[in-house]
Every structure is written in C-alpha cells, then in structure tokens.
Model the fold of this input.
Amino acid sequence: MSAAGSDATRGTRSVRLPVDPPGAKRWGDRLAGTPGPVLLVVVGLAYLALSQLVMLRSDPVTGASLWPAVGLTLGVLMLVPTARWGWVVGAVALAELASDLAWGYPVGTTVGWALSNIAGPLLAAFLLRRTGNVRGELAPVRPLLQFLALGVVVGPLAGATVGAVTTAVSSNSGFAEVWPNYFVGDALGVLVVAPLLLASRGAETRRSWRELVALILSTAVVSIAVFTDFGGSWMITMPYLLFPYFAWAALRFGTSGTAWMSLGVTVVASVFTAGGVGPFALAGEPEGIAVTLLQIFLAATVSFALLLAALVSDLSDRRQIEAALRHQATHDPLTGLPNRSRFAEELEDALAGADATGQRIGLLVCDLDGLKAVNDRLGHKGGDELLIEVAERLRGSVRPDDLVARISGDEFVVLLLEVDEDVVQRVARRLVDEVAKPFRPAPQRELRPSISVGAAVAEAGETPDSLFRVTDTALYRAKRRGRGRVVVVDEVLRREASTQVRDEGQLPAAFEEGQLVCYFQPVVELASGRLVGAEAAVRWRHPDLGLLDADRFIPAVEAMGWGDRLFETVLTQSLQAQMQWANRTGQRPRVSVNTSALQLGSGGVVNAVLRALADTDAPAEALCVEVTNTTPLDDVGVAALNQLHALGVRLVLDGFGAGWASMSRIARIHWDLLKVDSSFVAGLGTDPAATDMVRAMVAMADALGIRAGADGVTRMSQLEVLTELGCDIAQGPLFSRHHPADEVGRMLASDRVWTGEEFVRKAVTEELATATEA
Done:
C-alpha cells in the first residue's frame, strides 16, 4: 500500500477551510447587527474615551503622535451596514464636540476638527467598499494593500487637510507646520486600531490561551525594554529589535495578534517618547522631530507586520485550498469516503504489494438494495442520510488499515489486507448484518437497509480489472438470490467471469446480426387441455458454440448495461410471433415475456411495450408481462406495472410463494395470474406439505379473483394434483420444452388436446429418443 493509503484520510470527511464552530458569532458580527441608537451610544463613548486619553498627553493644535479615534471610526464603518453609517457619524460628531468644548476650544474650531475626523474615515470606507473590499478584510495581500492605500493614506490625507486648515485658521500655526503631524497621526491611528476591529471577521489562526498570555506579556516586556532610557547612543538601534518580534507575531498569530501587538508597542512608545524618554527622544530638539520620527517608524513597522501576516495568510489559504481540492478530487463529497479513482490507486498498490510479499488481499463489492425506493419515499435528502449512515457502518465494521470507498451512487467497495477466504466470508457477513440494523432518519420513520455483497480473494498476478470483474459477477449472483445475500468467488465463478468477458466482446455483434432469438414454451389450459399461449425465452445462436441458454450470457448483458435493449429485442420478436400464430390459427394466443424489478425500476419497460405494440400492431391483451419474484419491487416498478395493466397488458407474478411477494405487495398490483413457484410443484404427489402449500396458494388466488398457474411441471402425478386443486394453467417439460416460433405455431394450428394418454405416449417417445441418442 502507498503511504497515502494508511493515513488519516481513510476515515475523514471532506477538508474545509477553517470556520467558526456552529452557532459561534464574533463580536464584530454582533456590532453589525446592533440597533442604531445603541450604536450611537457605544461608538460615542468609545470615541470620547480614546480622544480624551490622547488629549491628556498631546495638544491637538500641534498634532497628536497617535489619533486612535480615527481608526475606531473607520473600523466601525466597515463593520456596520451603510444604512447605519448615519448613526456612526452622529456618534463621532457628538463625541468630538463634547470633548473639544470641554477642553475650552472655540465652537468653530471644534466643528472643523469634527469634520476632519469624519471626512477621512468616511471617504476611506466608501472607497474600500466601491473597490471590492466590502468587509475591510486585511488578508490576503490584495485586500490589505487596498486597506493600506485607501484607509491609511487616502482617508488620512483628506482628514488631515480639513484638520490642518481648521487649525491654521483658528491659531497662529501654519498649514505646512501642522499638516504632517495630523496626517501621520491619523494614519498611525488607523493602522493601530482599525485592524483590531476588522480582524474580528477574518479567519484567524487559533492559539491556546497560554500563547496569547505569552504574547501580551512579551509585548509589554519588549516594548518597555526598547523604549526605556538606559543611556548611551547605542539606544538608537534598539527599535530595530522590534522587527523580528513583529515578524514572529505575524507568523504565529496572524492579523489579529499583530494588531494587538501593534497597539501595545505604539502606546508604550508614544508615552515614553512624549515624556522625553527612549531612543527617539535622543533625536534632538525640538520635540516635534522626535514625534515625527516615531510616527514614521511605527507606521513602517506596523505596515511591515500586517503585510507579512497577510502573506502568511495568503500562503496558508492556498495550501488549505490545494489540500481541499486534492481531497475532493479523490473523495466522495457526501460520505467523505475515497472515490473510484482513489480506490483504483489503492487497489493497484495493494495488488503489487501482495505479489511482492506473498500476502493475499480481499475485495468486497457492496450494493445497497432499494436506494431508489428510499429516494421516492423520503426524497433525496433521506437517501443521502441513508448513504452516509451505511458508509459509517461499513467503515466501523473493518480494521483501521482496511479501506472503504464509494465508487457509485449505491455501490461501495472494501479492500481487506492480509486475509484468506474464511476471513473474507466472515467480514462480508458482518457487513451485511451491521447494515441491516434499523436506521431512523426521523423519529417516526424506521428503515431496515440491506446490502448485497460479492467478495473475492485476489490470486497471484491478479489485475485490478480482473479482480473487479470476478467480484462483480459474484455480486450479480448475490442480487439474483435476493436482498442481503453474500456470494464469495470460487473456481466455478471465476470460469463464469472469464466466459462473461468473452461474451461481452461478442454480444454487440450478436445484437446487430440477429443472433439473439426467442424460443417459446407452450402454456396449457388444464380444463380443456389446449395450448393457450407460450412463454418466451431468449437464446443465443453462437456461430462457434451453438445454441446458448440465457443463463450463460445474461450476466454479460447486464454488466454491459444492455438489459433494456435485450428486453425490447425479446418483446418485439415475441409480439411478431404472436401475430404469426394469430394469423395461422385465427385465434389470439397470448405470449409472455419476462422482466425484473430492476428493469421496471429503471422506467424503460412501459416505453418499450408501447413502442413494440405500435411497431407490430399487436393488441395489448395478447401480451403477458411476467415479473420474476427475486427482487422486491419499488414504487416506480409498482407504478409501471399498473400502467401496463391500464393499457390492457396481462400481468403475471412468476415464482409465487417464494421470494419477496407478500399479501400487501400483491394487493398493490392488478395481477392476472399468480404462477406457483416450481419448487412447490416439484413436491406435488410425493410431499403432503407441498400439496397443502399449493392448495393454499390456489385458494388465495381464487379468493382474490386471480387465475392460478404452475411452472415446472415434469410428472403426470403433479399434473393430476394441480387439476384436482383447481389450477387454471400449467407449463413445463411434461407438456413441451422450448421450441422455435414456427414449431409452436404448428402445435397451435393442430388444435391439439393434451390428455393423459398423450402424456404417456410423449414420455415413452422421449425416453426412446434419449436412449437412441445415448
């Protein structure tokens, strides 16, 4: 097996990008849903608090080194819908007016400063949304660059211009003197505060509380160490120590951690520098130079850290997306199991490993019975729930190193390592028993699912194609036996599979060249002893092997998906024969064709009957459709039979007394004939229990107003009991074997009456013929 075959992807669902746990709601999303009046109060108080903290240390006339209130405004504008922007603007205006008036500044100056603190964030938020960064995202790189260009540069440029003009008009300061400090202070405020708010919406890296505590404590220690005055000119190089520390925060904690670290470092640096302490205070006088240098340094450092965090996020997202795409390409999206392509790789590796080591592997092909009926009853959602449940049960029933995959809608496969035939048999039986446990998709609904299993142990030199083919043959045999059956491949099945491969290569020519022909077994009415019809059976006139029975090539036909085509071929030939018989005898003998629940469930039988009736101009009453009793009918099959009955086609339940047919299912369909299974007919005249069973079945048919028939009659004693019990019609080797259409036509034209003496003479003749051939 490849290394990939034993990793954790064997039993996992599809990979998805990190998301919040179900029900989680971040505080940024809560803020977006906050009512307007509440938003006005919350934002106003937060803005007032931030502005007061800064004004305690800085003079707004000369410009603050950091103005975090602008970052708060932009962050909130990006978080809330545009319909609530008016409440945010109102909160900023009221808070700014209250703060400035409390400090004694003139009303005109206060209004100008309020406009500057509104204009910058409002312009930036508008442009960010118009350019596509609707949520103000900071990762990956492209939205971060949009945020830096519009939120950190364009917005602060506008706000600083209004603020500087206001200050220049109301004071003796020049515009060029105060504008740079205003601009960098606003830009730095956006860089430090807005990411704290906007990161609340992003897919951030999750870390333990210990790591977060370590980040906070280390930020405080490093910041204080860098900006403390230890003396000496070497202190000028200390701020550069922050670069690797910011890089670590960006790599380890993403945008959110970087934003918190940026805030901590900026606050410490601003406080120390404003107090004349630290490396930037050594830059010389006047104080404005130190502030400007600090602003530039912090802006560059924070931008570098955010850009690095965005790059890391971009690479991480790409890796996760690539991993998800790889997983989705090799796994079933519904169940999370490996899909056909992945399983094919694993099987090829397993076979190669088995040849090298001498160990044996087993393959189990499991088909979920009746999925279409579940979809019809519960909808496709119910069917999907059942598939997921079956996948879980199969996966839980094998060893961790074994592989379970879903290769089609209702088909699963299991790869078993280091096994023999006995182990494969036990595992297959365990899978059937586990899947058969009740499943409740809803409190008031209970399903009892079942699977049919074909299993095989790989031989030396086996290829994936040959192993799959022989296992599919076993699955076909299991499904023919009914629901929940297991068939393990033996030598006989391997020979059949080899024959099927050859047949599949020759069947297309058989269809095209008319090698598939119908033979007919007469049906006798017991009351009159006359032939009243015949049942069709397909034969293959093989150019090399002679006449082949249907059991020989039907598996190949169904494996090729040509079951409907074969049914239509048999149906057309049968109706053509019926018309020939009618023209020859002047009567309407019925012809019977066989179908299965699988064909009826596919929906093609009714259309095939309509086309054949139209092409042959045969009356619907002359056709009998016999349904084999091995596989349960789903709702689609029942509807198809009722449609045929409405057309006038006669319906026959073949194999009555065995298989799936229950009273409730019989009552849902308008049967014209219940044909007693040959296994009961075989015991008539020798087994009293069989006689009692047939008597009960004939009585039940009579009570339902349905005719009773019998199949497989081989002895005169069986015929006598059937006649005594009131059976209506019968067929079998006692009357006649299968013959070509012309021979059956001659038998019908002779108006032959089958009497007891006739059977005796026929039996003696056949015995003499057999002895002569021997």
In short: The first helix runs from residue 27 to 32. The CA atoms of residues 326 and 690 lie 61 Å apart. The radius of gyration is 43 Å.
